[in-house]
Design brief:
This protein is mainly beta and 358 residues long. The chain is built from no helices and 31 strands. The chain is 0% helix and 45% strand. It is globular.
């Protein structure tokens, strides 16, 4: 369906996925099928970051947990007294990065932890791993307000800040700079842009050597695919995949609301798109070749996307307004839904997750 919108196929939802007496019910193509508990999580390990709304005044996790193939929840050793930012898997999903107490930290399923960098100003956030796993780009606070893009080398923690050379209204106005990290165009070139305070028809490419280049773009949003040959854009908030140079655009879907966020699968075959609507944010899984897609079923408890699985076959979500913590997993073609109840401490809510290999 080259260049033409595709119809979104709704998958019928059921709340029948229940773990009981060592068995798990899996919703598959509209039928209930029972499988052993060790297949609750189809692959890898999910690391969760949770918080207690009654004690947390900022959107940072207060505890880390590990969910293995058996569906059981175990504590993942954390850093004493630290709060955690979003957990971001590496390109190969063997590690994940996060900020804790102003430090950039690497971790894995076995809690083999390493402090990678301690930014000299403010806090780090919005991490993006290079496709070869050798660098991480992230936001860093500037003196006097505003944000920069820094790139740190994973091997030794050496850091450069290419965006420091950019002046203008983004430097000292804490209300206007909203910086977007859009992806690695090559293993050594990272693309980003600022909204509002800088021209929306420009974006920037920072290199691991510390250089910076300004480039024109068709629109303010670009999300580079894992193969670095394609790019997802949202012209007029319509998700569109094109070649990296902007040629051969394919509209994936037309929504009633605006597209407010997107995420490539690790395989690059699918795109998760969040639609901006009042109340719950509708989530769509779309084939990147434009061949189809479906909308994750509506639920009064509001599904929230957390992480792609390492293979890209599954997307993990949680229910924002559910009193019982769960992981709800959707196969990328909509053929199967699994729900894993989580035995977390009372009052804990899931804020972030990284689905990684063991």
């Amino acid at each position: 369906m080259n260049g033409h919108p595709v119809a979104l196929r709704a998958v019928r939802s059921t709340r029948a996925a229940i773990a009981l007496l060592g068995l798990v019910t899996v919703v598959a193509c509209g039928r209930d099928a029972t499988g052993p508990a060790d297949t609750v999580l189809p692959e890898g390990t999910v690391i969760l970051g949770t918080f207690e709304p009654s004690t947390s005044q900022v959107q940072l996790s207060e505890a880390l947990w590990r969910v293995d193939r058996d569906g059981l929840v175990r504590s993942h050793p954390g850093i004493n007294g630290a709060r955690y930012s979003a957990l971001v898997p590496s390109a190969d999903h063997r590690q994940f990065a996060y900020q804790a107490a102003g430090r950039l930290v690497l971790d894995d399923a076995n809690a083999t932890r390493r402090v990678l960098s301690e930014p000299p100003q403010g806090s780090a956030g919005s991490f993006s791993w290079s496709p070869d796993g050798r660098h991480i780009a992230f936001q860093r606070m500037r003196d006097g307000g505003g944000t920069d893009v820094s790139i740190v080398r994973v091997a030794d923690g050496a850091m450069v800040t290419p965006s420091a050379s950019i002046g203008g209204g983004c430097t000292n106005d804490p209300n206007s700079p909203r910086l977007f990290l859009t992806g690695w165009e090559t293993p050594d070139q990272f693309a980003f842009y600022w909204s509002i305070c800088l021209a929306p028809d420009r974006y920037y490419v920072a290199t691991t050597a510390g250089d910076l280049e300004e480039r024109p773009t068709r629109g303010p949003f670009r999300l580079v695919a894992p193969d670095r040959q394609r790019v997802l854009t949202l012209p007029s908030f319509v998700p569109t995949v094109a070649n990296i140079d902007g040629s051969a655009p394919r509209v994936l879907a037309n929504f009633v609301g605006w597209s407010e966020g997107a995420r490539w699968s690790p395989s690059g075959r699918h795109v998760l798109v969040a639609e901006q609507m009042p109340g719950c944010v509708p989530l769509h899984l779309l084939a990147a070749d434009g061949s189809g897609g479906y909308r994750i079923p509506d639920d009064p408890a509001c599904p929230v996307a957390l992480s792609w699985s390492p293979s890209g076959e599954w997307i993990a979500t949680t229910l924002r307004d559910s009193s019982t913590p769960v992981l709800r997993l959707y196969r990328n073609n909509g053929s199967e839904i699994r729900e894993i109840p989580l035995a977390l401490p009372p009052g804990h809510r899931i804020l972030t997750a990284a689905w990684i290999t063991n």
